[in-house]
Amino acid sequence: MSPLNWYKQLHYDHADLDLSEAYNVANQVMLNNLRLKDTQMGIQAFLNKQPIPDWTHEDD
């Protein structure tokens, strides 16, 4: 699942949670996204002022 789809799903999954629990769920999703190959490529491209990478949409 792409990071964008993860965030869309996050929005729907925590809509009925109280604020504290919603923050906890969102925090976990963001931490999981940091492990994705696309996220790492995007961060490196940004830091190195490189063009946007070709996204793989792989989970590893």
UniProtKB/TrEMBL annotation:
InterPro entries: Enoyl-CoA_hydra_C (IPR014748). This is Uncharacterized protein. It comes from Opisthorchis viverrini.
